[in-house]
Amino acid sequence: MILVTGGAGFIGSFVVDQLLAAGHDVRVVDRLHPGAHTCRPDYLDPRVEYLWGDVGDPGIAARAVAGVDAVSHQAAMVGLGVDFADASAYVRDNDVATAALLRALHDRRFRGRIVVASSMVVYGEGAYRCHRHGSVRPAPRSRNDLDSRRWEPVCPDCRQQLTAVSVTEECAPDPRTVYAATKLHQEHLCMAYGREHDAEVFALRYHNVYGPRMPRDTPYAGVASIFRSALESGHAPTVFEDGGQLRDFVHVTDVARANVHALTAPGSVGGAYNVATGDPHTVLEMAHAIAASYPGPLLDPVVVPRYRLGDVRHVFGAADRLTTGLGFAAEVGFEAGMREFASAALRGGMPA
Fold it and tell me: Which of 72, 99, 79, 96 lies closest to 15, judged by CA?
C-alpha cells in the first residue's frame, strides 16, 4: 500500500493514476483545500481508499499511515501567495502538517521510502556566471532596480550583467519567499526523519509544472494556469517584467512518472533531485505558445513592466542527476505539451 497525501490534487492525482496503472494499492489523504477545490474532483478513481481530512491532524495522520509501505507526500499550500499575511497558513499546511505526518510514521517505526514534493523555489535565483568572476550568486534584486526596469541580476563584484546557467542540486538553497522557506523546511524535516529511522527519502524539486487538472482562477496557481484562465475569461495573458524570465516547464505526467520511479525503482539513492526537462523557455514564449493553441480568439500576450518582489529572474534545472540516479527523463516536449494544455480541462478553485 502506498500513501499519497494530497492525492486528489493536481500533481497528486496523476501520481495516483500512475501507481494504479503499475498495479499498486493506493490510499489518499486530502483535505480538499478551498484554494484549489470547489468540490470533489470528477477524476477520482474508485479503486483508491480515500481518507478525507487534514494530514496535519494527528488522528488523521495515524489513520493515513497505518499499514503503508511507502509515502508520496504531495500535500502542500503552493504558489507565491497574496502577501505576507499568508505566512501562518503556509507554515501550518506545509511544515506543521509534514511534522504531524512524520510523527505518525515515527510512532509505527516506518522505514520505507518517502518522496516529498519540493520545488525549484528553494534555490531562490538560479545559477549564474560572470565572464570575469566565474560562478557567482547574485543578491536579491532591489526595488530600485526593479522600479527602474533593470530586470537582469548583476555580478556582486563588477556589476556586469550575468549569464544564467542550469541550477544543479549542489547549489546552496536560498529561499526568498515564505513558500520557498516552507518547502526547504519540508525537505529538512523529511531528511532528518530518514537519517534517524534509516528510511530512504527523495526530495523532488519540481520546476514549473503544468498540465490538466491545474486549479484555475486562484492566486496560488502556477503561471501557466493563470495565463489559461485569462484566455478563458476573454483576456490576453499579462506577462510581467519583459517576459524574458527563463524557466523549465515540465508536464505533470512526467512529474508523476518521476514520483513513481522514486517510490519503486530498485537501487535508487535518496536525496534531492531536480524534476525538469533540461530545455528552458521564457515566460513570454510559454504565454505565446498557450495563446496560439487556445481554441478561441487569438489574444496575444501583453507585456507590462510590473513585478512581484518575491519573483526571481531565471531558474531552470539540470536534469542529469534525475537521469543517472533514477533512470528517468522527461518525455513531453514543450511545444506538444503547451498545445495540449491550451485546451485541457482545468479544475475549479476559489481564492483562499
Answer: 72
Task: Collect contacts of 86-93 with beta carbons under 8 A, ≥24 apart.
Answer: 86/178, 87/178, 89/352, 90/178, 90/179, 90/182, 91/178, 91/182, 92/56, 93/33, 93/56
Judge contact between 285 and 301, C-beta under 8 A.
no
What is the four-CA torsion angle of 177, 183, 185, 190, rounded to 10 degrees? 180
Scan for cell 478563458, then name that residue. Answer: 232
Q: Against a cut of 0.70, is the pTM above it? A: yes
For residue 298, the SS3 value is coil
pLDDT tens, residue by residue, 69-99? 999 999 998 876 667 888 999 999 999 999 9
With the C-alpha atoms ordered 205, 210, 214, 215, is the resulting torsion angle positive or negative?
A: positive
Is the CB of residue 275 less than 8 Å from the CB of residue 250?
yes
Please state, as a whole number, how many other Cβ atoms lie within 10 Å of the Cβ of residue 23. Answer: 6
C-alpha cell at 93: 499546511
Residue 276 CB neighbour total at 10 angstroms:
30
pLDDT in tens, 168-180: 999 999 998 999 9
